[in-house]
């Protein structure tokens, strides 16, 4: 086993442990902040939105920082800051202290993801292998989330301040493990001084890359579709049990763990990733159209339709994630890995910020028509992807520095 392979395995274990802490925290944070800290829900919502906006703005600069410095040190530092912010939640007692810990904790997550992807790209030279390694990272992430959510359910059952406090400390420890394992990874390949110049300007001037990451980021609405759209639909427009939404989430989680790595083969080249993105958009649109047919539905027939929708959604999500990685790593400038991955994460962060509002307005307000509109949005987003990818390929053929 070579040093890079050993380092990637260390990263995998670290990611799994930190994801366990993430799953634990994301299971309990809403109730902790509103029931224990007694913050108003509107305060929590606005604070999270502010933190998300800061993360979107900071993603490219943080990614560019990893181009100029050792990406391991940058990622470990961001992780340690997030660990400190997590401990800070124990002292939150008003709006300002909430913002003081939430902004760094949430905002640095976006930049951290960009730096982690850049670190993987520095350790793995072949783009198709980079996608495969990223797929394994996602498998470890979802396995950790599932375990953390199970522990979080126990915390919610106890529903006491000491249980929440123990969970917060446990999450902070998981970040310390992630930081330590990151430092054990071998140093990635370094870029030349000329390659390091103005990496932010390089990615911001790369219009094909920004266009591709921008339109494909729309497909990340598939996450809000499960977390926001489906619960609103089941509760407001059908007579189906609300627990069906939980079954759909389980199907998604298990499917990702089993299939994300095999799906990486559909993004071995940029043009193959583009075709996968198109198929993903079509499948996600089909899942929306099929879900619209369950309006007012009840009984076994409607349940079967929702399960079919869950499978289609899973396939669409798997394809989208593989395509996003494939396009982002095949088309990036290797001398500006961090900045390019920061741009990719920033476009996704924008969609994630508006995702809940999109489904609240579309589904809660318009019902079946809302699903038709979301389906149209998925289709519209993927139509230009092949042409944009060909455009990007042509610009890279004329500019060897961007290979």
Key terms:
403 residues; Growth Hormone, Chain: A; 16 helices; 84% helix; globular
CATH architecture of the largest domain: Up-down Bundle
Note poorly predicted spans: 399-403
Cα Rg: 21 Å
Amount of helix = over 70%
CATH class of the largest domain: Mainly Alpha
Please give the structural blueprint:
Blueprint: H1 3-36, H2 41-68, H3 71-88, H4 95-123, H5 127-158, H6 161-184, H7 193-196, H8 199-204, H9 207-217, H10 221-237, H11 244-263, H12 270-292, H13 299-330, H14 337-366, H15 368-382, H16 385-398
Helix pairs in contact: 1-5, 1-6, 2-3, 2-4, 2-14, 3-4, 3-6, 4-14, 5-11, 5-13, 9-13, 9-14, 9-16, 10-11, 10-14, 11-13, 12-13, 12-15, 12-16, 14-15
Tell me briefly what this model is.
It is built from 16 helices and no strands.
Structural summary, described in words:
The chain is mostly helical and 403 residues long. The radius of gyration is 21 Å and the shape is globular. The protein has helices spanning 3-36, 41-68, 71-88, 95-123, 127-158, 161-184, 193-196, 199-204, 207-217, 221-237, 244-263, 270-292, 299-330, 337-366, 368-382, 385-398. The protein is built from 16 helices and no strands. Mean pLDDT is 89; it is low at 399-403. The protein starts with a helix and ends in a 5-residue tail after the last helix. It is 84% helix and 0% strand. The chain has two domains: 3-190, Growth Hormone, Chain: A (Up-down Bundle); 206-402, Up-down Bundle (Growth Hormone, Chain: A). Helix 1 runs parallel beside helix 5, helix 2 (41-68) packs parallel to helix 4 and helix 11 (244-263) runs parallel beside helix 13 (299-330).
């Amino acid at each position: 086993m070579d040093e890079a392979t050993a380092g990637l395995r260390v990263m995998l274990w670290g990611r799994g442990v930190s994801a366990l802490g993430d799953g634990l925290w994301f299971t309990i944070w809403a109730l902790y902040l509103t029931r224990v800290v007694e913050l108003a829900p509107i305060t929590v919502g606005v604070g999270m939105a502010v933190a998300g906006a800061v993360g979107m703005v900071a993603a490219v600069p943080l990614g560019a920082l990893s181009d100029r410095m050792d990406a391991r040190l940058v990622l470990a530092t961001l992780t340690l800051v997030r660990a400190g912010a997590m401990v800070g939640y124990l002292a939150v007692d008003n709006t300002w202290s909430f913002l003081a810990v939430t902004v760094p904790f949430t905002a640095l997550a976006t930049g951290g993801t960009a730096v982690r992807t850049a670190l993987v790209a520095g350790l793995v030279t072949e783009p198709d292998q980079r996608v495969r390694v990223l797929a394994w990272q996602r498998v470890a992430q979802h396995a950790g989330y599932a375990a953390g959510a199970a522990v979080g359910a126990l915390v919610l059952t106890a529903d006491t301040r000491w249980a929440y406090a123990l969970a917060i400390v446990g999450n902070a420890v998981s970040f310390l493990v992630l930081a330590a394992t990151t430092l054990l990874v071998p140093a990635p390949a370094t870029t030349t001084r000329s390659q390091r110049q103005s990496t932010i300007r390089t990615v911001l001037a790369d219009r094909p890359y920004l266009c591709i990451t921008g339109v494909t980021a729309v497909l990340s609405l598939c996450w809000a579709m499960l977390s926001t759209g489906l619960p609103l639909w089941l509760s407001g427009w059908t007579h189906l049990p609300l627990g069906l939404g939980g079954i759909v989430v389980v199907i998604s989680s298990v499917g990702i763990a089993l299939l994300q790595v095999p799906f990486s083969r559909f993004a071995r080249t940029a043009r193959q990733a583009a075709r996968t993105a198109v198929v993903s958009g079509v499948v996600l649109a089909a899942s929306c159209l099929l879900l619209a047919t369950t309006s007012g539905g009840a009984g076994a027939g409607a349940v079967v339709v929702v399960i079919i929708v869950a499978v289609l959604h899973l396939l669409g999500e798997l394809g989208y994630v593989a395509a996003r990685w494939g396009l982002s790593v095949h088309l990036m400038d290797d001398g500006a890995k961090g900045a390019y991955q920061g741009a990719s994460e920033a476009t996704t962060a924008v969609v994630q910020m508006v995702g809940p509002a999109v489904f609240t307005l579309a589904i809660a307000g318009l019902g079946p028509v809302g699903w038709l509109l979301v389906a149209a949005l998925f289709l519209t987003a993927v139509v230009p992807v092949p042409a944009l990818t060909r455009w990007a390929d042509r610009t890279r053929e004329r500019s060897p520095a961007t290979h």
